[in-house]
Amino acid sequence: MSTHYDPLEHPEVQQGSAGRYLAAFVASAALMGGAYYASTQKLPLVEFAATAAVLSLAALVSQLFLFFGLNASQAQIWKSISLFLAIPLFIVTIGLTVWAFSSLYARTMPMDGMLMSGQPTLLQ
Amino acid sequence: MQVAVDGPWSPLLGRLSLAAIPYDNPILVTTFAIVVVLAAVIVGAAFYFGKVGYIWREWITTVDHKKIGVMYIILGLVMLFRGFMDGAMMRTQQLLADGPASPGYLGAQHGYLPPYHFDQIYTAHGTLMLFFAATPLVAGLGNIIIPLQIGARDMAFPYLNATSLWLTMAGAALCMISLFVGEFSNATWVGLMPFSEMPFNPGVGVDYWMWAFQLSSLGTTFNAINMIATIVKMRAPGMSWFRMPVYCWSSLTTNIIGLTIFPVVTVALTMLGIDRYFGTHFFTAGYGGNFMLYINLFWIWGHPEVYFLMLPAFGLFSEIVPTFSNKALFGYATMVAASFSIGGIGWVVWAHHFFTMGMGPQLNGYFSAATMIVGIPTGVKAFNWLFTMYRGRITFATPMLWAIIGLVLLLVGGLTGMMLSASVFDYTVHDSLFVVAHFHCMVLVIGSALFAAVTYWWPKVFGFKLDEVNGRLYYFTFVVASLLVFVPLFYLGFAGVTRRLDYIYNPDLKSLLWVSEGGIGVYFISLFFFLKMLYISLRDQIPAASDSWGTGRTLEWLTHTPVPFYNFAVTPQINSRDELAWRKANGVENVQPTQYVPIHLPNSTAVPFLIGALSAVFGFAITWRIWWLSIASLAAIVIIIIIRSFDKNEGYVLSAEEIARLESRPDLASIIAEQPKRSSLAHVEAI
Amino acid sequence: MATNYAKAEPSALWNPSADEHDPISARTYGFWLYLLSDALIFTSLFASYAVLDNPSNAAGGPLAAGAINVSHGLLQTFIILASVLAYSLATVSMKNGNKAGLTLGIILAMVLGGAFLYISGADLWALAAQGNGPTRSAFLSIFFTLLLTHGLHIVIGLLWMVIMLVQISVFGFTKDVVGRLLNLRLFWQFQATIWVCVYFYVYLLGGAV
């Protein structure tokens, strides 16, 4: 550690911008508010789930770019690469688990859901 | 909401009482006596030779990656021995308890181990071997070698590195204490549900296992963060990605796997913990608990875990085979691609561990196919090693012998793995000794790689080679023993012997059991040769050259032997893949730097050791439900971390003159040598 | 704090000036890796939630629709996003060397985080008080665990903010303090991102079915 430098000059400090953060807040709040509004509209389940998923995904993406400031610049590239390599794992963990258990439940508890309160669930 | 426990509980001692000490178990009493004597000898020797201060200053408080790596390896070897003893006890029990006419000793109906004790032994065997033998050995080697191979001075986070070590030690301590105070888990190393829940396992055994597992997982996760950051951020100038040794690529993949899987098992264990401590119903029998959810989460961790251990082994083969074939590794790019493929595919195949759960043919089919695909990159690697050896000038030094047998075992283990990956076949041998034999073959591949690596890099770290003659005797007896123990298990699995049996109903299987037991005997002989090899090597200490094997190709062989604590006096500039081979080809391998610059190194600190010690106390206290001590130790850990964050911790500086002096006297700079106290940076700057 | 080292010439074999690495980047990258592992903790919790959100795991008790308050969830979303905004703007003050702005922003972030915890805590307490606590069924176990794990992240974040307030006043903008504030920004933004996922998964989907 030879040359002295001002920590405040570091790119990750310098990347902070009030405009971007405000945009992130407005985008995320508006998108999630929109999803809430959709939930009050009594849409059929699949449509609602798709709408809410798209809106939430948009909120997440806006947070990645506007709050975290991920991009391909030298200061951020490794964070971006690491996250994008990890995203398939999130999908696989939840996806394969849901597939396996919905199949298991269908094969081992076929009467289930009819005896109970009749609520459809995430697995169906 | 707190779960009421069986047996007495006092506010001061929790569930702990004198009844927890197993006075009446002769095996444990004997073990305790041996452990006490050994500890007394070691501690006594430390005091007698006046080395206590040295051990504290140079080893326990160190943040040097090489010393941390050596301590990991020592832990791994000691736990390997204990795990081996557990295995030996299991094989002996199965031999003695064969058939209804077999006699019973020491209170057992057949054999000498009652089922409850036998169950703890196989649980301990699995837990110890995986978390406290294999993982520390792998982590230790990575710790020592990776910064050297990329030309860095240390890992990215030295303080975190030390903390990982001491957390792992804390987990191992809990396992050792469980021998003598209380009991260990009897619910298998996996932790089967609902068997591990309170109603079926009201004792402290499962809690010991759970907390040891958690501490070790935490240490491994931190180590993964450290390794990835080091490889990404701290390569020497000129070391682009495709000039990096394949062992570093393998370690990168390994640690990406490690980083991503350990959180999943942490969640699974925490859910079990909440069930046991707070009465929730994740995995209970009733109230909607779902046993298979635990199994699912566990194996999401469990399958990539085996690649977490195997990929470093492959990386080690990729270092040793080229060096002892005196030829560059064949197919560098495909090796790298294969490592990432194995890592990626290995992440999505976990359900082959529970084909029999009943997910249905589509899922079983997917998981079968995906599991089989992993054979392709593995095959690519195996062929690349063979093509490396082809037309090379092979030296059959001990590390090369280990590597060769590793490749043979990879073939056997891998082929039996392909058999198991077909779900229809798996249904017939699920949970039988066939599976046990398969994974022990794979474990032996890892073991071969680790023994090869320890022998290979020993001279670099310590300055002298291990004795070749006894090393070969150790190798041959170990290989013979392994074949004798595990090949019969394949047949026994087909004959219908399931795992974890303390009694075998069929006396016709006796001959196979005897062959296996013979292998155990040969393992003891190999242990003798191992110890003799260590003794003779330490006694003679024949100095080794910088490039100890003569045909080194990678950067770590450029440092002095033994490697100085600061690694390189001046950071090397990298010109090529296999930098040392390039320098030899250009005739510049002996060119030393002309000018030294001061080196800034981190200070030693007692904090990681304290965190480890307090974690062990926390694990013990919460296992025995001593609430006040649990809270106090946890609070102490948090407070120490916070206090330490206020420490400016500037490190110290090695001046250019000091470096010049140490360069001319490598024995003063080795990791064994005691270093004088040097002024901290803040002090230097104040002048 | 400047130190003057002799500048030796790099040659083709040795590079004496190579020891200067960027500790702040290494620090934030390491922390980012930790956050990825934390994301996998939440992934496992979400996967478990998906499995246990089923009448057979409800032991006759409520599923998500009976356990959540969707409008409270929306309010919590706004509050936590505002908290993240406050902290992020605080780091913009830090960029300008403005200690007072930084301190004010952190305190505001803490107050909003505390408000989030209060609403969440009150809802969970009420749920438990009516007999639907985490020990009632497997579904409620995962429901409480998921929400409390997120809440625990907020608690740790608040504790971290307190410590940083002390360190800012004692040490000023050293590389360690700045590095920690950057890490805390990542952490705080991360937990809000996780909350968006929780809101979607538990509140929106749960409330709809």
SS element count, helices of chain B: 22
User: Biggest interface between protein chains, with counts per chain?
Assistant: A-C, 61 and 70 residues
**What general form of chain A does the structure show?**
flat
Q: Kindly name the structural category of chain B.
A: mainly alpha
What portion of the residues of chain A fall into strands of 2 or more residues?
under 5%
CA radius of gyration of chain A: 21 Å
Q: Can you give the mean pLDDT of chain A? A: 86
Number of strands of chain A: 0
Q: Describe the biggest sheet of chain B? A: 2 strands, antiparallel
Query: What portion of residues of chain B is helical?
Result: 55-70%
pLDDT averaged over residues of chain B = 94
Oligomeric status: heterotrimer
CATH superfamily of the largest domain in chain B: Cytochrome c oxidase-like, subunit I domain
Uncertain runs of chain A are 114-118
| Rg of chain B, Å, rounded | 25 Å
List low-pLDDT spans of chain B: 683-687
Which strands sit side by side, in order, in the main sheet of chain B?
1-2
Structural commentary:
The complex is a heterotrimer of chains A (124), B (687) and C (209). Chain A has 124 residues and is mostly helical. Helices cover 65% and strands 0% of the residues of chain A. Chain A has 2 domains: 69 residues; 54 residues. Chain A is built from 4 helices and no strands. In chain A, helix 2 runs antiparallel to helix 3. By secondary structure, chain B is mostly helical. Helices cover 65% and strands 1% of the residues of chain B. Chain B is built from 22 helices and 2 strands. Chain B has a two-stranded antiparallel ribbon. The longest helix of chain B has 36 residues. The C terminus of chain B is likely disordered. Chain C has one domain: Four Helix Bundle (Hemerythrin (Met), subunit A) (Up-down Bundle), CATH 1.20.120. Chain C starts with 22 loop residues before the first helix and ends with a helix. In chain C, 57% of the residues are buried. Chains B and C meet through helix 6, helix 7, helix 8 and helix 22 of B and helix 1 and helix 5 of C.
